[in-house]
Amino acid sequence: ELENVDLVIVGAGLFGLTVAQQAVEHAGARVLILESRDHIGGNAYSYIDKETGAEIHKYGAHLFHTSSPVVWEYVNRFTKFTNYVHRVYTTHRGEVFPLPINLGTINQFFHAHYTPQEAEALIREQAGELASSDPQNLNDKGISLIGRPLYEAFIKNYTGKQWQTDPAELPAGIINRLPVRFNYDNRYFKDTWEGLPEDGYTTWFERMIDDPRIDVRLNTDFFDTTQPLNRDAIVGKVPVVYTGPVDRYFDYSLGELKWRTVDFEEVRYDEADHLGCPVMNFADADVPYTRAIEFKNFNPERRAQQNANKTVVWREYSRTAERGDEPYYPVNTQTDKDLYARYADSAAQQPSVVFGGRLGTYKYYDMHQVIATALNAYEHDIASLLGANEERQ
Ligand code: FAD
Ligand code: UDP
């Protein structure tokens, strides 16, 4: 079966799809994609809910944003984007505040009318001795950014629920993603471009691989030796791009990397709109879920196709992933980073296997970063493997 295949890709997520598209476009390669799930798109997959007409992001809310002209141009070859702008609110002690923490949040919290300068001075004072340091962990970073009172209200418990790891053990980088602003700008992302795919995520992904040279086998696990297209039958014969968990590839021989997973609880309402926004965070420890997502509200431009009397909300519960759970977010403590470095060494010794994507490189990547790294990996590592393979034949 491998005779007519130039490249095997394990995983039909954005990394795998981007590499497949590039291999066909630049090398005319014949690509076989193996995917253990029953659909393409990886964690960015979505489907339309019959009752409400909402586009449900099956593995949690996905918002596309990027500042890279290369990535923006690339994705626009396959889909148009809506003018959706991401905004998030948070509930704390029975009150709703805007996020990311901005002058509106600060003034509401302190019942004040500070100017940007006054607010900055106040926060600097509250950040105390950490204000001018370069904190390495999330706890100190949070306090240095917004001061202790706001940190304890909006970050501490939310992060505790989400990561179930002491914030003092978590890398500061996690909340670099969450800026603080001394004006009323409450756009969640700072990127140049953002939006949602006009015809949905899955249509976008189908267009990326709409070519007869790309063959996708769903429900096919690369490690399942009872099916013919497994690791032992493939590695060494055809170049492989592997986007599953890196520790799984090496049979967990050095130990297991830690991941966080998310469970979703679906709640349906006989209402047009339940939250009044797409995403509501819950900052306090007494609400067990971190956030609630109302998918209809991501696509207000589709009101005519949506049910005006019903809506669906997903509540997100976060916990440590066990083996067999979906690994969603790398926990990335120092122990994990050291372990990953050892797996990365082993990966580098596999001459015909390229490891990529969130799972394959144990990185907290957003979609645009996965696409950028896939374009790069194609150009720098995969193109030459395809060339070498051609010469052999
Ligand atoms: P994945 O999408 O995980 O794809 C890997 C694929 O490999 C999967 O389909 C898996 O089934 C398959 N696979 C694994 N092992 C095997 C095997 N042994 N055999 C066959 N197939 C296998 N990004 C954003 O830009 N914006 C967001 O708002 C955003 N929100 C997110 C929210 C959540 C809850 C999560 C989990 C992620 C979010 N992301 C977001 C990140 C985004 O999902 C990733 O950046 C992107 O989907 C990763 O693509 P990937 O190809 O690396 O991995
Ligand atoms: N965060 C927080 N309170 C919030 C929202 C975010 O403390 O209301 C912190 C939390 O540690 C989280 C990080 O900021 O892990 C990044 O948040 P974001 O919503 O960007 O992450 P996502 O979970 O969507 O990847």
From TrEMBL:
Source species: Bifidobacterium tsurumiense
Family the UniProt entry places it in: Belongs to the UDP-galactopyranose/dTDP-fucopyranose mutase family.
All residue ranges annotated as the UDP-galactopyranose mutase C-terminal domain in the record: 153-364
Listed NCBIfam families: UDP-GALP_mutase
Domain of life according to the entry: Bacteria
EC numbers on record: 5.4.99.9
Cofactor: FAD
Cellular component GO terms held in the UniProt record: cytosol
Keyword hit for Isomerase: yes
A Pfam family this chain is assigned to: NAD_binding_8
SUPFAM superfamilies given in the database record: FAD-linked reductases, C-terminal domain, Nucleotide-binding domain
Keywords, sorted A to Z: FAD, Flavoprotein, Isomerase
InterPro entries: UDP-GALP_mutase, UDP-GalPyranose_mutase_C
A molecular-function term among this protein's GO annotations: flavin adenine dinucleotide binding
Protein name: UDP-galactopyranose mutase
